[in-house]
Specification:
Strand content: 35-45%
Shape: elongated
Structural class: mainly beta
Oligomer: single chain
C-alpha cells in the first residue's frame, strides 16, 4: 500500500513538473504596434514608452535592438491597470526606434515589436493677427494664425479673457478652422451688447493633433493663470479692446 502511494505521488509530481515546464515554455503575446506610444521631446530625444492592451502583472521591457541590444527600461503593469509607462534610461535617449516585449506571469517573454520614435507634437506659429484691435457691439473681429508646419493639426482654440474692476474674470473661446485658400487658421470674435467692455487678451492657444496630442501656447504675461502649458509666448499683439 505504501509503495502504491509513493508511486502515485511520484507520478503526480512528474505530471505537475511537466505541466509547469509546458506553461513556462509558452510565449507571451507580443504587443501590437498600435498599442505602443513612444514619447520624445521636440528634438526626438526619447523620454518614455507607453504600452496599452496589457494586463496587471505583465512585465514590459524596452530594448534598442530586435534580438540582442540593451535594455532601455522595464516596468510591471500595476494592479487594476491595462497600460504602463516605461521610463527610458539616459543611454537610450538617442535611439530612433525601440523594440518592446511583454512577459506574462508564468510565460516566456514575447518576441519584440518595433516602434519608431516620433517627434513631439509642437506646431510652430509664424504669425498671429487680428483685423481690428478696437471694436464695439455689433462688430466681429477676425483672428488668424499662420503655422509654419501644421503637423496634422485637427483643431485650434483661442481662449480670450477680460477682467472687471471687481476682479471677476470673463472668458470666451474662439475656434479656428483652416482656410485652404489662405493656408491660415481663422476664426471670429463676435461682439454684442452683452460683451464686457475692456481689453480682452489671449490667455492661451490650444492645438490638437489628429493623433489626439495637445500642445498649448500661453501668454507669457498671464502665466500664473494657466497650468500644464508647453510653451510661453508674448501674445499681446492679439489683444482686442471692446469700447
Amino acid at each position: 500500500m505504501k509503495k502504491t502511494s509513493m508511486l502515485s505521488i511520484l507520478l503526480l509530481t512528474c505530471s505537475l513538473g511537466t505541466a509547469a515546464a509546458a506553461l513556462a515554455s509558452e510565449a507571451s503575446r507580443a504587443p501590437q504596434p498600435d498599442s505602443i506610444a513612444v514619447y520624445s521631446d521636440h528634438d526626438r530625444v526619447l523620454q518614455s514608452v507607453r504600452v496599452s492592451s496589457v494586463e496587471a502583472g505583465d512585465t514590459v521591457t524596452v530594448y534598442d535592438g530586435e534580438h540582442e541590444g540593451r535594455i532601455l527600461g522595464t516596468s510591471r503593469v500595476p494592479s487594476g491597470e491595462q497600460s504602463v509607462d516605461v521610463e527610458v534610461s539616459e543611454t537610450g535617449r538617442t535611439a530612433s526606434k525601440v523594440y518592446v516585449s511583454v512577459a506574462q506571469p508564468g510565460k516566456a517573454e514575447s518576441t519584440r515589436t518595433d516602434k519608431e520614435a516620433v517627434a513631439a507634437f509642437a506646431p510652430v506659429m509664424e504669425a498671429a493677427e487680428v483685423n481690428s484691435s478696437k471694436t464695439q457691439a455689433g462688430d466681429s473681429v477676425k483672428v488668424a494664425l499662420d503655422l509654419a508646419e501644421d503637423q496634422a493639426v485637427s483643431s485650434v482654440t483661442l481662449l480670450y479673457a477680460v477682467e472687471s474692476k471687481s476682479g471677476r474674470l470673463t472668458e470666451q473661446q474662439v475656434v479656428l478652422v483652416k482656410n485652404d485658400e489662405t493656408g491660415k487658421y481663422e476664426g471670429w470674435f463676435a461682439v454684442d451688447s452683452l460683451t464686457r467692455r475692456g481689453e480682452w487678451h489671449v490667455q492661451q492657444i490650444s492645438f490638437q493633433s489628429e493623433r489626439g496630442e495637445r500642445f498649448v501656447i500661453s501668454n507669457a504675461h498671464e502665466e500664473q493663470w494657466v497650468s500644464g502649458t508647453t510653451e510661453h509666448m508674448n501674445l499681446e499683439g492679439m489683444n482686442i479692446i471692446v469700447q
